[in-house]
Amino acid sequence: MDLVEVDPNAKPPVCRIMDYGKYKYQQNKRAQEARRKQSQTVVTLKEIKLRPRTDEHDLNLKIRNVEKFLANRNKVKISLQFRGREMRHIDLGKKMMDRVVEEIKDFGIIEKNPTLAGRFMTMIVAPKN
């Protein structure tokens, strides 16, 4: 057993006789529990990657995944990567992004419109409130 000063600012200072190792262990467990509960409320950013030649069925699957992420209150970053000569056909990528926006307009709000940065066209979608 140890003599532990619990509140040094009180008049008179408060001390307690306890097992200090057990006390530190319990504090650590409380802090872990608080961190675990906190992570459930934090909004995370999920990412979906596309290509301009992504097939119809694969695109529909990715759109369903975006809808699931938005339903779980997560933000979604949609990235469309161009390779090689695909850079000449940025309009195809723009059409694909417009289609994705049209499909998910009931589930989310466009937070950042599609922008081209290097070989990637990206946009960010937030869940509707």
Describe this structure in words.
The chain has 129 residues and is α+β, with helices and mostly antiparallel strands. The protein has two domains: 40 residues; 83 residues, 2-Layer Sandwich (Translation Initiation Factor IF3). Helices cover 41% and strands 33% of the residues. It has three helices and six strands. The strands form two sheets. The protein has a four-stranded mixed β-sheet with strand order 3-4-6-5, covered by helices on one side. It has a two-stranded antiparallel sheet with strand order 1-2. Strand 1 and strand 2 form a beta hairpin. It is rod-shaped. The mean pLDDT is 90.
Short description:
It contains three helices and six strands.
> Can you tell me the overall shape?
rod-shaped
> In order across it, which strands form the biggest sheet?
3-4-6-5
Q: Count of DSSP E strands?
A: 6
Order of helices and strands: EEHEHEHEE
Helix content: 40-55%
How does the helix and strand content classify structurally? Answer: alpha+beta
Name the poorly predicted regions. none
What's the level 1 CATH class of the largest domain? Answer: Alpha Beta
Can you tell me the CATH architecture of the largest domain?
2-Layer Sandwich
